[in-house]
Structures are given as structure tokens and as C-alpha cells.
Amino acid sequence: MSFIAGPVTVRTPASSANLGPGFDALGLALSLYDDVTAEVLSSGLEIDVVGEGSDGVPKDETHLIVRAMYAAFDLLGERPSGLRLSCINAIPHGRGLGSSAAAIVAGITLANALVDGDGLDGAAAFQLAADLEGHPDNVAAAMFGGLTIAWLEGEAAQVERLDSAVEVTVFIPSEAVSTEKARGLLPETVSHADASANAGRAALLVRALTGAPHLLLAATEDRLHQSYRASAMSDSYDLMSSLRADGIAATISGAGPTVLAFARGLGDRLPEGWALHELDVDLEGAHVVVT
Ligand SMILES: Nc1ncnc2c1ncn2[C@@H]1O[C@H](COP(=O)(O)OP(=O)(O)OP(=O)(O)O)[C@@H](O)[C@H]1O
Ligand SMILES: N[C@@H](CCO)C(=O)O
Which atom in ligand 1 lies closest to the alpha carbon of residue 16? Predict the structure, then answer.
């Protein structure tokens, strides 16, 4: 196997998972991006990070993008002799906007682009991303763009992708909550009534997000995860509840603590010290940037 020298740049979108009732299944790609450039070196590993996470992420082989690249190269049969990575990050870490999924998908997409010949096909790339992330919802949206419905057939990750044109505002608190911590707050079992309520709302949500926005408030009602996680993100839970009480469809984005609202013009609801972005749905997913 051989490699091209590069450099190659990959752009990967942020994503919001769950969207209320679609826990671990629904994902929406958002117009906030990380750009990562990689090139092959004769030896060594050089990593430069600008923007989100620049102070926190490791600059060695434990860097998540490098781990994903190596995992893809290992499936393909060989790693390059050395690598240089340059990351320009806009997706905040540990906020529920799919930063880890974007890093994993960027790494796999870059590895494919640096191989001189056939890389992993779409199904193999998605399976690897879902295995590395541990659940498929964010990686589906980051890889394919749009609105994604992901599920598992045994261990095999599956995805169905739809277009969506909803407008979104995200409210991002300054403090992170790790996905690991937020998942640890979930109960082992839930009631049949709660499970069936979520199944109905999740079905309705797919319709609401693909051309029936008047259904969004009802369709984003959740009983499976948001209330269980409220203790780790009480300001976010309060903001989401107050937006919903005013008729605005709002959810906790992914594992939180970002609040996502399907509306615009909400600047007056922004808590002090938080950041706000008005975003569109990204329809492209991760892709090589052609210059
Ligand atoms: N661009 C990146 N480069 C390197 N490491 C990253 C990058 N993005 C995320 N990570 C790693 O992933 C961690 C955040 O992952 P985590 O799953 O907790 O949150 P998230 O992906 O931002 O949120 P969510 O999964 O709820 O959408 C970071 O602390 C960092 O270790
Ligand atoms: N579905 C996941 C998304 C975060 O990665 C969760 O809520 O834990």
C-alpha cells in the first residue's frame, strides 16, 4: 500500500444528537465546522491545534483524530511513516455538539484521502466511527450530513439519511459536561409508559424535521434522558424548560449541556457568559476541501 503526501484538508460539521426523544438514534448535522489538514512525513508525529480544545487535547498518538486515523490505516493494512496534523477547531468540546464524533469522522476521512488507492467504503467507515464513538447517532450526522436515523443490527451500525431545512439556535454554557458523566446518570430501566411515549414522539419528530415545523414542540418531548441528566446541567434544563413553556421547541443537545432551539431571534434568552450560534442544517457531512 502507498500514500499520497498531501496536504489534504477535511471539513467536518458539528452535530446534535437525540433532538429530544430520539436517544442514541437521531442526529442533525449543523453548520459549525472543524477543519483538519494532514500530510504524510518520513517520520514522527506533529500536531498543531488552534481554537476549541487547543489547551486541553493531547498532542501525541492519544489525540482522538490520530487514534481514528491509525484505526482506519490498521484496517487498510499499513500506517504511514509519519504524520503532521493541523487542526482549526470551532466545535466546543464536551458541550453536546458532537466534537468527539467530528474528530473521529475527520480522522477516518483523512486516512481514506491519504491512501493512494481504495480506502474504506462508506459502510466500513461508518462502522469504524460508530465503534470508536460507542454509539452511532453523532457520527452518522457528522459523516453523512442532514438528518440521520441510526440503529444497530446486532453490532452492525446502520443509517438512513434525510434532508432537513430547519433553523436552529444553540445556547452553549461555558462549562463542559462529559458524555461519559451524562451517560452515567441514566437509569438501567424505564417504564413502558415512558418508552412508548418516546417512540411516538420520535416518529413524529422525523415528520416535523422534514417539512412539518408546526409539530416540532410536541415532537421534541422526551421522557428517557433529559430529566435524569438535569442535576449535572441545571441551568441548561431550566433554560430548555422555559423556552418550551413559551412554545419554542427546545432540547438538550446530545449529552448536554448545550440547549438547542428550533427557532431564531432568541438573543434575549441568552444567559450571561454563554455563547449563542444561529445555525443551519449541514447537508454535506465530512468532506475533503478542494482548494
Ligand atoms: N477535535 C478534537 N481533537 C481531539 N480530541 C477531541 C476533539 N474533539 C473532541 N475531542 C475529545 O473528545 C472529548 C469530548 O467528547 P465528549 O463525547 O465528552 O463530548 P462531545 O463529543 O463534545 O459531546 P456529545 O457527544 O454530547 O455531542 C474532548 O474532551 C476530547 O478529549
Ligand atoms: N446519544 C448520546 C449523544 C452524546 O454523544 C447521549 O445522549 O449520550
Answer: 27
- As for how many domains the chain has, the answer is 2
Annotated binding site for ATP: 92-102
For residue 28, how many other CB atoms are within 10 A of its CB?
30
179 & 234 share domain: yes
The protein residue with its alpha carbon nearest to ligand 2, atom 7, reads: 255
- Which of 106, 138, 163 is the last residue in one of the domains? 163
ipTM rounded to 2 decimals: 0.98
Query: Percent helix, strand and coil across the chain, each rounded to 5?
Result: 35, 30, 35
Atom number, ligand 1, closest to the C-alpha of residue 180 = 18
Q: Please state the atom number of ligand 2 nearest to the C-alpha of residue 225.
A: 7
90-141 per-position pLDDT tens digit: 999 999 999 999 999 999 999 999 999 999 999 999 999 999 999 999 999 9
Do 144 and 53 fall into the same domain? yes
226 alpha carbon, closest ligand: 2
- Per the domain annotation, does 135 fall within a domain? yes
Q: Report yes or no on whether pTM surpasses 0.80.
A: yes
Q: What are phi and psi of 244, to 5 degrees?
A: -65, -40
Residues 206 and 128 both lie in one domain: no
Q: How far is the CA of 92 from the centre of ligand 1 (A)?
A: 8
Domain that holds residue 225: 168-279
Q: What is the pLDDT of residue 1?
A: 82
